[in-house]
Amino acid sequence: MEDLADTIRNSIELKTVNVGFFSKEEYVVTGEDIANWFKKELNVTNLEEIEKVVAGMIEQDLLHSPSGTKAFQNTSKALYRFQVDEPGSAVNMLKIYKGPAKDPMQLTTDLISRANDLLKEVRVEVTPGEIGLNVEKLKNSSIYKELKKAICELQSTPLPNLNKNEKIACFLNIYQIMYVHKLLKEKTEKAPTGGLLKKMKGLVRYKTKFSLLFI
């Protein structure tokens, strides 16, 4: 379902729609757009089948209605936005993680290991002694794709259960992940402006009493 949502999002036109005199919704598609995509790209014309699939994406929080409507409506008036385009979302909110909470130390250590594997895969020697990143390889890397999914698990990891030393170690791990992810995003997307902390703001969000340290 995630792969289908990604495919639709990457091959459908995202729109900016005025919803009032002074408000608008950005990066949205209409229910009619989605239905037409299924007809054109997959040759699926059965509306009930389309509604069932889209309802599954809505149920898994891959797709949202700005108005809060849960049911899929095949009209040009019904607006939908993919989770990855939700305004103000942190990087680890690109998908809503619904799996079991993992041990923070184990999770953050695993994320660092994945990041190291990714850097080994995409690093390239630009000139003798100068190391850079192969951007095209980074964009197409399955390791990078899985790393971004794994980062979403930070939403539910139980940080308050750690002792003082574990919290310090865990936050240092998270800092490293944020820094590496910032660099990777700058290579694949338009580089943000401002200082390091400003650039890192919004990269990680999780539901704990420590979240103010990073957002």
Could you characterize what this model shows?
The protein is an alpha+beta fold and 215 residues long. The chain contains 8 helices and 6 strands; from the N terminus they run αββααββαββαααα. It has helices at 2-11, 31-41, 47-59, 104-122, 135-139, 142-151, 164-188, 196-200, and strands at residues 15-18, 24-30, 63-64, 79-82, 123-127, 130-133. The strands form 2 sheets. Strands 1-2-4-3 form a 4-stranded antiparallel β-sheet. Helix 4 (104-122) packs antiparallel against helix 6 (142-151) and helix 4 packs parallel to helix 7 (164-188). Mean pLDDT is 84; it is low at 191-215.
Brief digest:
The protein has helices at residues 2-11, 31-41, 47-59, 104-122, 135-139, 142-151, 164-188, 196-200; strands at residues 15-18, 24-30, 63-64, 79-82, 123-127, 130-133. It has 215 residues and is of the alpha+beta class.
